[in-house]
Amino acid sequence: MSGNVLEIEIFSAWNTYAVSMMSVLENCGMWRKTDTFQKFMCETGIAVRFCVDKTCSPLPITDYDWMDEHTGFMERIGVQTVKYFAAPDDAAYDRTQKKAIQAVKKAIDNKRACVAWGIDAGEFGVIYGYDEEDKVFFVKGIGSTNTDFSLPVLYHNLGKTFEYAPILYSEIPQAFHEVDEDQAFRDFLNTYIQEMEKSSDTPERAYGFAAYDMLIDAAHEREFNTFGLRYCTGIYHERKEAIVIYLSERQKEENDPLLDQLTDSFRETLRLYEKLMRDVLQQDTDGWNHLSKPISEECYPEIISVLHEVKESEEKNVAAAKQMLNR
Fold first, then answer.
1. What is the dihedral of CA 215, 216, 219, 223, to 10 degrees?
2. What pLDDT sits at residue 146?
């Protein structure tokens, strides 16, 4: 074979950009392998991002400004990346693709894998090798229908493998510097508060507290995209769980009553997400098969009740976070 292949470990998760990028950074030494996925989710700010649309479709999970927000995620952990992006109708698509192909091969030769969009599905994954003779990239799609194996991607198909959104997006780590852990924690708290209090510039989407109101209205009107509700519940459950684990790990290092209060508050939020996901929607976090199951009419009153409770718990979380920051 004329090319190069990196040995890289990747596990499956709902938040595919997060797990893909963490795997890439671990592999090239820009994220410590002893640091957890949950810490990565929190310190980048991915865990606190909370957005829904009027029917709770799956779109807001990946339909955001990747160039801007991914830069922000990485800056919080001291990482700089280079990105290659082109929308399907971009006149420069082919030219950008050629640049991306060369950049990805060069990065792999320099022992750096690449995060890419749409390898097996409308999710992020990793390019970890290439073969110059066959003109293919070796890839791992996170959240694919076959989680054990992804077919190689021909160079000229880079960015085009997810037919419903053939967006070219490749992101390669470039540089790294250590960040102060205490400041990273304070940034996490600040970012969480900002996301929960964030206002929207469109009536079609809502963030934070307003997102819960939008979900409750959708439940009253029976306007849920049921696939989207199940998908978003899985995504946000994983994020809330990440916050609890991150705070719990910090608890072990500190004797801080305010941190104890904050952690217990988030545990209640996670408990409610568990209730919504497992008891009300009767789904789990393993696999994707349950996402297309219908939601019975008798579930809606329970959904509304739990959403009210979750919003109240998030209000307590924000109050506790502000108390920690303001002492």
1. -50
2. 45
Q: Determine contact, residues 311/196, Cβ cutoff 8 Å.
A: no
Distance CA 152, CA 245 (A): 35
CB 125, CB 139: distance < 8 Å: yes
* 248-276 residue pLDDT tens: 999 999 989 999 999 999 999 999 999 99
Task: Give the per-residue pLDDT at 57.
Answer: 95
According to DSSP, the β-strands at 153-154 and 124-131 are unpaired
What pLDDT is stored for residue 1 in this prediction?
65
The answer to whether the predicted template modeling score (pTM) of the entire model surpasses 0.85 is yes
Contacts 24+ apart (CB under 8 A), 300-303: 300/219, 300/220, 300/222, 303/219, 303/276
- Percent of the chain scored above 90 by pLDDT? 86
Strand runs labelled E in the chain? 3-5, 51-53, 79-86, 114-117, 124-131, 136-141, 153-154, 168-176, 205-207
Sort residue 118 into left (φ over 0), alpha (ψ -120 to 50) or beta: left
Question: How far is residue 131's CA from residue 104's CA, in Å, rounded to a whole number?
Answer: 12
Residue 301: CB atoms within 10 Å:
12
Q: Is the pLDDT of residue 203 over 50?
A: yes
DSSP summary character for residue 179? -
CA pair distance 58, 266, nearest whole angstrom: 24
* pLDDT above 70 coverage of the chain, percent: 96
Q: Dihedral (C-alpha) 208, 209, 213, 214: value to the nearest 10 degrees?
A: -10
Nearest residue to 318 via CA among 185, 184, 196: 196
Residue 264's contacts (CB-CB under 8 Å, 6 or more residues apart) are none
| 3-state SS assignment for residue 124 | strand
- pLDDT tens for each residue of 85-102: 999 999 999 999 999 999
